[in-house]
Write a structure and sequence with these properties.
It is a single chain. By secondary structure, the protein is mostly helical. Among the domains are: about 60 residues; about 60 residues, Non-ribosomal Peptide Synthetase Peptidyl Carrier Protein, Chain A (Orthogonal Bundle), CATH 1.10.1200. Helices cover about 65% and strands about 0% of the residues. The chain has eleven helices and no strands. The longest helix is centred in the first third of the chain and has 60 residues. The relative contact order is 0.05. This is Retrotransposon gag domain-containing protein. InterPro entries: Retrotrans_gag_dom (IPR005162), RTL1-rel (IPR032567).
Length: about 250
């Protein structure tokens, strides 16, 4: 009798462990992918939240600026707002500092004492309506408007005043030329002023000019005005009240 060696056969019972291990591997891989996806999602949400915080901070800062400006807008008076609405819009090509009515250069000054104060007035107005300049520039422009005797004086005195202030230069100029009517004061000229053959209007014009610089009060000026008139004109004023203001008396 022949004995046969039996080898155990692998049955279906041994297959499930391998299948289970394979299934677990696939499940772990799915979990890993899911975890990675969740991690990416969390990172994106964190970044988005950070950007939102930054935008919120900018909005808050803008609101604070607006809140700061509101009181200034509230205190603006209606008159100022009306003026702003009526103000003409300047052309972009025009300079904002340009004067609306440019002042012409003063006429040349020849050194005549009687014309000195008018020349100084024109120079003062020209400088006021011109851009701010240094003393040297003002002195240079001043001398450029001199001629004849005045220019001769500036030429002679230049070595001693070069580099000085405009105030010092002006003081030296006045010492030489600011002596109208041969050095007589305005009051002295008023005392000597007479109408003569002139019209009342011409006499009144010279009288007003001298009176403006005399420093006299109105009662004294009324007396001097009557004193300078011709006898026939003075007779016409006899019916007028002596207490009339000077302007009414002259008119």
């Amino acid at each position: 009798m022949t004995l046969k060696k039996h080898f155990p056969l692998q049955g279906p019972a041994e297959e499930p462990p391998k299948i289970a291990v394979g299934n677990q591997g696939r499940v772990l891989e799915q979990h890993s992918q899911l975890f990675e996806s969740l991690a990416n999602t969390v990172t994106a949400l964190t970044t988005q939240q950070s950007e939102q915080h930054s935008q919120l901070a900018q909005i808050t800062a803008s609101l604070q600026d607006i809140a700061t400006q509101l009181p200034q807008l509230r205190v603006a008076s209606p008159a100022s707002l009306a003026f702003a609405n009526q103000a003409p819009v300047s052309s972009p090509a025009s300079a904002p500092s340009a004067a609306a009515f440019p002042v012409s250069k003063p006429d040349k000054y020849d050194g005549s004492p009687d014309l000195c104060r008018g020349f100084l007035l024109q120079m003062s107005l020209f400088f006021v309506n011109s851009p701010v300049s240094v003393d040297a520039a003002r002195i240079s422009f001043f001398i450029s408007r001199l001629t004849d005797k005045a220019l001769d004086w500036a030429t002679a005195i230049w070595p001693s005043i070069e580099g000085s202030t405009y105030e010092h230069f002006l003081k030296e100029f006045k010492l030489v030329f600011d002596h109208p009517h041969h050095g007589q004061s305005q009051g002295e000229l008023l005392v000597k002023l007479r109408q003569g053959n002139r019209s009342v209007s011409d006499f009144a014009l010279e009288f007003r000019t001298l009176a403006a610089g005399s420093g006299w009060n109105e009662p004294a000026l009324r007396v001097m005005f009557r004193n300078g008139l011709r006898a026939d004109v003075l007779a016409e004023l006899a019916c007028k009240d002596d207490g009339l203001p000077l302007d009414e008396l002259i008119s």
